[in-house]
Amino acid sequence: MAVDDYSIGEDANEWNEDEAWLAGPLGREMVFLRVPEAKTVKNSAHVCLRPVDTDRDAEVERLLGLGASMVNDLRNRDQGWAVLADPEGNEFCVLTRTASACGITRGS
């Protein structure tokens, strides 16, 4: 099973500011919860986003407009990725269509 198998839940009425989830096959979910503690160390999980309905650069601009900040811009034309952080400092990457197309290899 891959993250590609997951989608944002369809019932927007159940969304709130303290939790969100991605629905997957066979009733599986990836749940994200807000915690009261501030971030004190490196993320224990690292999320990489791969847009499917837009390109990487447009998605980076959209996320910056929503309050993300640029941590490290490693984009180079059609390769590379951007490391962003949410307003609380949690880092994540925005990739091109595939990790290998970005130049990301295991251990990078």
What does this structure look like?
The relative contact order is 0.15. By secondary structure, this protein is of the alpha+beta class. It has helices at 56-65, 99-102, and strands at residues 7-8, 19-23, 29-33, 47-49, 69-73, 82-85, 91-94. Strand 6 (82-85) and strand 7 form a beta hairpin. The chain has a 4-stranded mixed sheet with strand order 4-7-6-5, covered by helices on one side. Strands 1-2-3 form a 3-stranded antiparallel sheet, with no helix packed on it. The protein contains 2 helices and 7 strands. The mean pLDDT is 75. It has 2 domains: 1-34, no CATH class; 39-108, 2,3-Dihydroxybiphenyl 1,2-Dioxygenase, domain 1.
**Count of extended strands:** 7
Quote the distance from N terminus to C terminus: 22 Å
Tally of helical segments: 2
Which strand order does the major sheet show?
4-7-6-5
Strand/helix succession: EEEEHEEEH
Name the CATH architecture of the largest domain. Answer: Roll
Please give the domain count: 2
Measured on Cα atoms, how large is the radius of gyration? Answer: 15 Å
Characterize the overall form: globular
* Unreliable runs: none
Report the biggest beta sheet as strand number plus sense, adding barrel if it closes: 4 strands, mixed
CATH topology of the largest domain: 2,3-Dihydroxybiphenyl 1,2-Dioxygenase, domain 1
Helix content: 10-25%
What would the average pLDDT be, to the nearest integer? 75
The CATH superfamily of the largest domain appears as 2,3-Dihydroxybiphenyl 1,2-Dioxygenase, domain 1
Our estimate of the beta-strand percent is: 25-35%
Top-tier CATH class of the largest domain:
Alpha Beta
Helix and strand content put the structural class at alpha+beta
